[in-house]
From TrEMBL:
The Porphobilinogen deaminase N-terminal domain, residue ranges: 5-208
Keyword line: Porphyrin biosynthesis, Transferase
Biological processes per GO annotation: heme biosynthetic process
GO cellular component terms, A-Z: cytoplasm
This enzyme's EC code(s): 2.5.1.61
PANTHER family assigned to the protein according to its UniProt record, in alphabetical order: PORPHOBILINOGEN DEAMINASE
Lineage, top ranks: Bacteria, Pseudomonadati, Bacteroidota, Chitinophagia, Chitinophagales
Record field: catalytic activity: 4 porphobilinogen + H2O = hydroxymethylbilane + 4 NH4(+)
This protein's name: Hydroxymethylbilane synthase
Length: 306
C-alpha cells in the first residue's frame, strides 16, 4: 500500500534545496512525497554563538521531535549537522551522493592580505573548527561570529567592515550564490561529512526505510561514516575543532584527519590508506593515533573550556 511521504525540512533556501533533492529522487522511484517545513532552534536564535547554545543537534532536534511524533515521515539534514548518536527510534535511511567538500573564503576586495604577515585581518565564521584552523595559519587575525542562513551571512559580510568570511562551498554552490569574490581554501580540511545530505526515518517505518534505501550512495555513506567515527571517537560534535575527509580511489580508502586546539596553537594530523575490505575501522584507529600523540591533552582542554 502506497502512502504520501512527508519530508521534514528546515525553511532556509539551502535546506529546501536538499529536501527537494530527496523529494525528486523519491518521485523518480515512483513514490509520492510532500515537503513539511519546520523551524529549528538554530534558525530562531541567530545571535548566540553556536558553542554557547550547545550546538549538538541544534539544527536537527525540532525535526527529530516531529519525526518521532509522526508529524513527518522522514527528515533531511546536512549530515555534518547531525549528532554522531541518533535519537532512539531514528535511523539513517540514505546518504546522497556527496557534493563539494571544501571551504571557501568569500573576500570583500582581494586576497592580498593573506600574503601580508603583519596585517590583522577580520574574518567571520560561526564554526569553532574554522576559527581554530584559521588561527593556526593566521594567529594575528581577528575572528568574528557569523550566524544565519547562507544569504543572511553573505549580506552580513557585505554590511560589516570585515575582510572576508568562510563558507562551505556546497552551501553556496547548491543555491547558486557563490560570489565571484571567493577562493577555495585547499589547506583547510573540512568538517566530517561536509558536503553530504542525509535522510533519516523512524526505525519501525519499513515503508520509508525501503524507499530511502534506493537513494543511498554507498561510497559516500562509507566515507562519511569513517569521518564521523573519527569525530565520535574524539568526543567530538560540530562544536569541536575536528576535521576529517575520506575518499575512495583505486579500491582503497584514503583518510586524513585533524584535531586542533581552540585557539589554533596546536594542530595534530593523521593520515591512513586502507583497502576497502578493511576500511571500516580507519576512523576509529586514526582517532586512537591522535589521542596517543597528544590529542588527549587537547580534548581535555576543550572539555574544560565548555
Amino acid at each position: 500500500m502506497s502512502k504520501e511521504i512527508k519530508i521534514g525540512t528546515r525553511e532556509s533556501q539551502l535546506a529546501l534545496w536538499q529536501a527537494n533533492k530527496v523529494k525528486d529522487l523519491l518521485e523518480a522511484q515512483g513514490y509520492t512525497a510532500v515537503l513539511v517545513p519546520i523551524k529549528s532552534e538554530g534558525d530562531i536564535d541567530l545571535v548566540t554563538p553556536l558553542y554557547e547554545i550547545g550546538v549538538q543537534g541544534i539544527f536537527t532536534k525540532s525535526l527529530d521531535i516531529a519525526l518521532l511524533n509522526g508529524k513527518i515521515d522522514i527528515a533531511v539534514h546536512s549530515l555534518k549537522d547531525v549528532p554522531t548518536q541518533l535519537p532512539t527510534g531514528i535511523i539513517q535511511g540514505a546518504v546522497l551522493e556527496r557534493g563539494p567538500v571544501k571551504d571557501l573564503l568569500v573576500y570583500k576586495t582581494d586576497t592580498t592580505f593573506l600574503e601580508q604577515p603583519d596585517y590583522i585581518a577580520n574574518i567571520a565564521t560561526s564554526s569553532v573548527r574554522r576559527k581554530a584552523q584559521w588561527l593556526h595559519k593566521f594567529p594575528l587575525h581577528h575572528l568574528h561570529n557569523l550566524r544565519g542562513n547562507v544569504n543572511t551571512r553573505l549580506q552580513k559580510l557585505a554590511n560589516e567592515n570585515w575582510d572576508g568570511a568562510i563558507f562551505a562551498a556546497a552551501g553556496l554552490e547548491r543555491i547558486n550564490v557563490r560570489p565571484a569574490t571567493s577562493v577555495e581554501l585547499d589547506w583547510m580540511l573540512p568538517a566530517p561529512a561536509q558536503g553530504a545530505v542525509v535522510s533519516v526515518c523512524r526505525e519501525n517505518d519499513d515503508y520509508c526505510r525501503q524507499a530511502l534505501e534506493a537513494l543511498n550512495d554507498i561510497p559516500t555513506a562509507l566515507c562519511t561514516r569513517i569521518e564521523r567515527d573519527f569525530l565520535r571517537a574524539l568526543m567530538g560534535g560540530c562544536t569541536t575543532p575536528i576535521s576529517a575527509h575520506a575518499t575512495i580511489k583505486d579500491g582503497k580508502v584514503h583518510f586524513n584527519g585533524e584535531l586542533c586546539s581552540l585557539n589554533g596553537d596546536k594542530l595534530l594530523k593523521t593520515a591512513a590508506i586502507s583497502p576497502l575490505e578493511t576500511a571500516a575501522e580507519i576512523g576509529n584507529n586514526a582517532a586512537k593515533t591522535i589521542l596517543q600523540n597528544g590529542g588527549d591533552e587537547i580534548v581535555a582542554q576543550i572539555k574544560n573550556a565548555r
